[in-house]
Amino acid sequence: MGLSAKLRTSISIVVLGISILAWVILLVNPGHIMGVEHCHVSASGPSAASLDMLLKMNPFSSLLLGWGLMVVAMMMPKLVMPIRHIYSRSFKSRRFSSASLFVLGYIAVWMVVGVVMTAIIIAVNLLMPNSYVPAIILGVIVLIWEFSPVKQVSLNNGHEHPTLSAFGWEASRDALVFGVKHGVWCVASGWALMLLPMLLPQGHNLAMFIVTIIMVSEHLEHPQPPRWRLIFRRKLMLIAYAQTRIRLKQALNPA
Amino acid sequence: MQSRSLDDPTSWWFYAAIHGQYITNNDDPGTPVPTGYPNWGKIPGVPKVPTTPLPSQSTMDEYWDQCQHAGWFFPPWHRGYLYAIENVLRDIIISLKGPKDWALPYWNYLGPNGQYRIPPAFTQQNLPDGSPNPLFVTARYGPQGNGNIYVQIPPVSQNCQQAKSYTGAAPAYGGGKTGFEHFNGSTGYLESNPHNLVHTQVGGNSNSSSYWGLMADPGLAGLDPIFYLHHCNIDRLWAAWNAAGNSNPTDPDWLNGPTATGDRKFYMPNPDKSAWQFTPGMVNNISQLNYTYEELSLGVSTAMLSKNAMRLRNLALADDVKQDTDMDSNTESELAGANKEALKLGATGAHTTVKLDSGGWNRVAKSLKAASKTSLPDEVYLQLEGVKGDADSNIYTVSVNQQYAGHISLFGLRMASMKGGKHGGGGLTIRLDITDIVDKLHLDNDMDTSSLDVLIQPSGPVSDEGECTIERVSIYRKSQQ
User: Which member of A2, A242, B56, B344 has the lowest number of beta carbons within 10 Å of its beta carbon?
Assistant: First the structure.
């Protein structure tokens, strides 16, 4: 059974609200958790001293926290549909806890990946500080990945909304496993895209915003048979265009 | 049309592929083609269905695999489909010196005087001059699987005509709000019964082979000429429902079709092979398309018009309630019970126990206790979730606590279960209104129960080669407050 329009809207508002809050924190950037900062020592090339200085200026834990906030900001909009699925398939008393377990499982996967990603970010900043070369190389990998069958398989699996147990610990387990699986396919689909803004010496907020649009848009596409193809998943843009057109038409030609 | 080649947009084969096909792994909806039947190259007997020459990829992307099921575009997409094929057929008929006002006939299987039997023109293998009858197909087996084609009444009915709202969170007349959907979980009353049941009954499972009928599978159905008469009747029922004062959605997302949500457009080939792009708003009523039906009565007695009034009468309460309305945005629905294990449906059916949740079920009991014309009691639905497999042609009966709940048709099962398909292989979601059964429990003072027994049994011959799994059987309550 579908959820009432009121509940559907409430879920969207809460989930998108959390995302917006994370965006605000990222933009304010307290304690400079976003991006890697350099001084003349850390920017002088790879050495034990520069690594030491780099980690002093950018503690691993702060970078990981920044990564977590980035995941919440960028990925929460993609979780609206699975959370609605959990709400419609769970007992009222379990809806919130199951949805929370789903989000926990999902974020946990991205955080485990975040440890590796943060290490890569530090290594890149140590070896090639303030350089666009790593981002350009990753950009090429992103393009290859975007058009690959592996990407399509991951996107297809991201559409899976499994049947959930209704009672007891099995219900909690299923919600958590759903979150973990959803996270795994999301990582498989978007790992390179997510890393890209972090490798840019400048402008990663704008890059993050663009990547969010791309990731939400490709998530909205229907599943397709996996194969190599030159494809631009522009569903979000099509929706925005169609809805704007409809509303403009209504405004110009009121019934 | 049947003499034209597959890549001709005005051929019979091309038009059937617009509905759905098993020739090629078309990208959208990405239905992997089986190697054996139902691959179009493996269809038994007549007609001999071509699988080449294929149209260009862009033509297939534009036209093929469009049929809209299990959602609110089901009625308007099929209306546009019928309108377009009628134009092509009329064009051919006029060129052969036929009547200029030729129109598609409808098969009113719910009408009097034995109309439940298939029109005889479709059952003769040869025309009087000895040539093959293009209206005959071998793979049409009927409800008993013996080639005797008729519609069983009941379970087929036009009770769908009692519905008052086109769409909503709970089952409604036309289906739930969706994007471009081949098959999903928001089937409307019109689509469930009569549409789906007639498809599977007419197609059926052969008693003497492992084949099932073309009509029972959406990737084959458009090949059988009786398909178009069946759908004309469905279109007529929709027109009659509107003629009785019921409204179609005014939501721009419905009027503008799936393009409003960034999906494919609806396209049909014109007789001159150009493309006609249409939206639900362009086929909103039959007068827009300049046609009508000779019979446009609602088909259900006025005494049955308000479901809530009937219900309150059964509950020995006042029955002067207002008409049922769509309260999608205000009313809530919630899970009230579920079974534990997935079920395998085979030739013998399945049995399961649905354990009830004290919270949701108590709210149902409370609403029944407090029921009055100003406080309508909850509605209760049985939901079969994650129905997956490839046994489209099977029909089952469902009973709850030994009370008949309804027949279910698995039409569309294969496509809904394809992992690379539009729905990510989520399968079908089937709902049955069991409010009457729960009302009876209330009247018998049996609401103090912790579980309900659900029995699913085959109706008529079922294919035991095909697979069908039901991942969860649930009970939902829908508040009417």
Answer: B56
